[in-house]
Every structure is written in C-alpha cells, then in structure tokens.
Design brief:
Distance between the termini: 12 Å
Shape: globular
Low-confidence stretches: none
Helix content: 25-40%
Oligomer: single chain
Strand order of the largest sheet: 3-4-2-1-5-6-7-8
Number of strands: 14
Order of helices and strands: EHEEEHEHEHHEHEEHEHEHEHEHEHH
Strand content: 15-25%
Mean pLDDT: 91
Amino acid sequence: MNKIAYIGHCVPENFSEKRLFSAAANAVIWYISNSLHQLGYNITLYSVCFGDIKKSKGNYHNIKIDNGYNVIVLPFLNYCNKYTRLISKIVFKIIRFVHLFFAINKNDVIIVYHSLELMNLIKIIKKIKGNKLIIEVGEIYGDYWQNPSIIKNEMNYFKFADAFIFQSEKLELLINVDNKPYVINYGSYKTIDMTKEIKDDKIHCIYSGTFDPKKGGVELAIRTASFLSEKYIMHISGYGSKEQIEKIQNFINDINKKSKCHIVYEGLLNNTAYEQLLSKCIWGLNTQTPDANFNETCFPSKILMYLGHGLNVVSSKIPVVENSEIGQYLTYYNEQDPKNIAETILNTKIRNQNENIVKHLDDLFKLKLKEIINDL
C-alpha cells in the first residue's frame, strides 16, 4: 500500500496556536486525510501554516490523530513587527523546505493542496526525487488576482502533476490538457445523521465563509435579513482580516437596529462548534458574486457542508455550481438583490434528505481516488 505525504495549510481541531489558513481549505484537507486513512493508506499530513499573531512562537508538533495517522505541524519563530516578521517568514520557508525534502521518501505519493507559495518547493522535490504527485486544485489564484503572470506560472506548475483532484469540472477542462487521471471533489463530503436541534420556533439561516469583499457574499447575506420576518434568525460565521471582521461586525450592528430578523455574529468556529450550529439551521446561503472571474472555476465548498448537514441551500446562479452533480438539489435566486434572496427563501418549500446525495458523492470519490493512487 502506498505511503502518502499530504501537504497543506491546515490545523488540527482545537489547535491552540494561531496559524494562517483558509477554513474552507482546512475542512477539505481533513476530509480527504480521513478518507485516505479509511482507504487503508499510511498517511502523514504536513501542516505548513505560518503564524498570524505577534509575539507568539509556533512550536514543532507531531500529533497522533485518534483514528490513526500523524500530523506534523512545522515551527516558526516569534516576531514583533514587520521586519522581524519578514525574517521569521524567511526562516520558516527554509525550515519547511529542509523538513519536507528530507522527510518525504522518493517512493511516497505526494498530495499537495495547491498554494502559490508551495509551487517551487514541490517542483524541486519532484525534479530531484521523482515522487508521484497529485495536485489538489481548488482555484486558479491568478483569476482571483486578475494577474496573467500568476496564471502562467500556475499552468506551468500543473504540468508536473501525475494526477489531479479538482474542485470543479471547469477546472479540469482548463488545466488537464494532457488528460491525466483526475477525480472531482467539490468539498468535504462529511455527513451528519441528526435531527435538527431547534429549541425555539425560529427558522435559522446561515452564511459561512470568507469576509473578503472581492468574493462578495457576506454583506449581501446580512442585507437579506432586513427582508425576513421576526420568525427568522441569520447566523454569520466566517473569517477575514482584522479590518474585514470589524467592518462586518459594525455592519451587523447597524442592520440589527432596523431588522425584524435578528442577525448573530458567530465568528470563525472550530469543526465541532460549526457542526452544532449547522444542526439547528434550515437554510444555508451561498451569495457569492456570480460574474467574478474566479467563480467560473471555483466551487464554493460551503455548499457541501450545508447539504451534508441537511440544510436547504439558496445560491446565486454560478454555472460551476448549476452544472455540477449537486446543482439540481439547490434553490437559486434570480438577482444579486437581498429582497429577491429573501423572497426566494420565503416562497420555497423546505426539502429534507439532501445529505443522501453527499453520501453518494463520498462513495464515488473514495473509489476513484483509490483507483488513481493505486495506478500511479
């Protein structure tokens, strides 16, 4: 059985140190890690997150996960200003390169979650050691930054892959020009068998995800609450920069002063707290701007979390979502307008058992992933 070295920006549940990572990517990485372990592979997960807080040191950790595999969290030096942060970042890159280069054996299969800062490192290891390489692609970052030079570098890097995990069919069409083995993974296919734990007579809705204004979504979800009645509660859970978080908190306070629907700021929740929140929600909102370039290829992984926990999903009309395997199970609104979104929620009959399609995708993904790894 192949040994797997899985590399990504992720942290274990209830990890005490402050590290830089995407909550969406973190959920997907842990889902795939657990899937690989369930399939019987010997897996080591390498967490390559830098620190996001001053005057704190990031220690080296070798953590044994309950279900039987190791997570290596790489260390970084503490810093107190932008100059020492730069030094710490350079030292961290050296530590990351040295550790991964010598820890990964040439016969290991490398799976790496696509990141611009890991591209050169992975290319060096691939060139020198010749490992089989699976690149997990959630988005083309050059599309987000609207930078042709970054897109060109990404496309050149993708040529080093022996196989792919794509987050959408459109990504496969754009990147996999050599028809290499691939599997589609929209996000975490984790499902929770539970009855809705609603302890009041309210209809709970949730927006979760980034507060990045470039990706849109969170402010539109907050505005939607203004057009819902007092029977509804809107939960806002997500992440962003300090400035973005403060802006969203202030915006919520302003809307709450005039909205019948109460809005609750939840912040960034760990897996357990997030699942508990989802367990009482009926509606999940995906309100990303449909005409943004990156939305042509980037599948919003929050949708899988919603469906896997039995939520009904209301979404903007993004082709990569509409044309996916789960597109038919979503409810779409017609305009990027909070009143239209609220009317869609109010006028749509609530459906149950959405998690069944997620379980089906989970089975298909594991079968295909195992086939790809064993054939490398």
